[in-house]
Amino acid sequence: MKLKDWYKFSGTTQRHFSERTGIPDATLSRLANGSSKPSGETADIIYRATGGLVTANDYYGHSPVPTADTGAEPEGRVAHA
Predict the structure, then answer these.
(1) What single-letter DSSP state applies at residue 43?
(2) Per residue in 28-65, is it b (16+ CB within 10 Å) or e — as a string?
(3) Segment 36-74, tens digit of pLDDT
(4) Is 52 helix (H, G, I), strand (E, B) or coil?
(5) Cβ contact 21:34 at 8 Å
(6) Structural domain 3-61, CATH architecture
(7) Sign of the four-CA dihedral 61, 65, 28, 24
């Protein structure tokens, strides 16, 4: 989930999230609009503060690795019968 979407989902404002996490409002603004990527530490703070709903993968466009029960293969791999 993107940070901007999480704000809407949770009903939390960017300013309140900034106060809660200690991440500067300007940094959160750049992260929410996609003009910046978080450091590892910042991504971890956001992950924890959003209950795991916003992950580092959300900033880099990576999908979660599929589980065995979905039958899906990671991007670029071909399933073999």
Answers:
(1) H
(2) beebbeeeeebeeebbebbbebbeebbbbebbeeeeee
(3) 999 999 999 999 999 999 998 888 876 666 655 555 445
(4) coil
(5) no
(6) Orthogonal Bundle (1.10)
(7) negative
Are the C-beta atoms of 58 and 50 separated by less than 8 Å? no
pLDDT in tens, 1-43: 999 999 999 999 999 999 999 999 999 999 999 999 999 999 9
Amino acid 69: pLDDT: 56
DSSP assignment of 2-37 equals -HHHHHHHHT--HHHHHHHH---HHHHHHHHTTS--
